[in-house]
Amino acid sequence: MDVQPVFAGNCTRCHASELVTSDERSDATEGFDYDSAEAARSSAWLVWSQISSGRMPKDAEFTTAEDALLVWEWLSCDGPE
Ligand code: HEC
Q1: How many angstroms separate the Cα of 60 from the Cα of each of 1, 17, 39?
Q2: Which of 58, 69, 74 to mutate to test the pocket of ligand 1 (most atoms within 8 A of CB)?
Q3: Quick check: 71 and 9 in contact, CB under 8 A?
Q4: Residue 81 confidence (pLDDT)
């Protein structure tokens, strides 16, 4: 399951390890980065609660419901990357 494009389309413009200053991150919380699967999994529940409540992405709607569902499946079944 390849969820990286979904994170790239929705999250990494603010949450990415190569974005350092709060300016670059648009103030996204430090330590929450979605450019790697490990990082996304390390806060799986928080990731989903932000998405399902519509709080993230902060600047837009989530791309599609299908994309959101893909993230849900990936986080909940702990399957291959
Ligand atoms: C436009 C920039 C932007 C985008 C895009 C974005 N975020 Fe955020 N994120 C923020 C900011 C700013 C905060 C700091 C808390 C706040 O302002 O709500 C944050 C905080 C968070 C937090 C920490 C919440 C907490 O309670 O500490 C999580 C988890 C998170 N974002 C997940 C995501 C996920 C998952 C995506 C993609 C679906 C995403 N964000 C997309 C800007 C963004």
Answers
A1: 24, 21, 22
A2: 58
A3: no
A4: 54
